[in-house]
Each structure stands twice: as C-alpha cells, then as structure tokens.
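fyi for ur records
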Amino acid sequence: MAAGPRDREPAVPDTRDDAPRLSPDGPEEETSTPEVEVELRPQRRLRIWQLAPIVGLAAIGSLMFAFPLAFGTGDGGAVVAMLGLLISCCAAGWGMMAARKVGHTWPGLPTRTSGERPDWRVIALYVTVGAALVALAVWRVARLR
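which gave:
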C-alpha cells in the first residue's frame, strides 16, 4: 500500500536550538532590530492660504509706493507713496508673525525654544538696516513736495 499522511513523522522544526538562552538577567544574545524614529506631528510650514494675502498686500503696497516715486505725478503722489509704504510694512509684519508662528526665525537669531540669548550685534545690524530703509523712504517721499 501507498504511504498515507499518517504514516510519515510530522516535520516539526527543532526550535530549542534556535531560541536564545535565558539567564536571570534576560536573554544571553542581543537580537535587536534597528529603531526608526518617525515624527508624528505634521511639519510646520506656511500654507498657500497664509502666503497669498501677504504676497498680494506686499505687491500692491510696493507698486503704490514705487509709481508715485518713479513718475512724480502731482500733489497726491506723496500721500499715495506713504500709503503704499504703510501697506508694504503691514504685509512684512504680517509675514514675520506668520513665519514666527510656524517656528521660523531671522538669520543669526536662535529659535524661541532653544533658551539661548540672541547676539546683540545681530540685533543691532537688523535695527540699523531697518532704520536706514525707513529714513531713505521718508526722505524720498519728502522730496516729492
């Protein structure tokens, strides 16, 4: 007769030799798998709905500031230029606050959560450049009159 399934011995692998030996401190062999860190929170980025109004206001304000200065049209040019400067500065401030909210910082300054103090020379450089730009803008608008 032919050998049926019951006539053969079951093929059970011998797992006693493959298993790590146990000691009172735990397994003797270290079988570790590499760990992978995954960020669960989404990356903080500025979205298009945050950037679009900022870019739009900056473009409109800079055009309102630039055209009266470039072409010097009449008595209302100084008022339009100052209004354009105001809108541009508002867009820049809005952009800075949105960038700070998602965690961006100015170049040379530490992040808010680092606990480091900012370097006074970097702050002085930013204040000097900003004051020079405002002085030049006001001086140019004042020359329109």
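Strands lie at 22-23, 26-27. thats all i got for now
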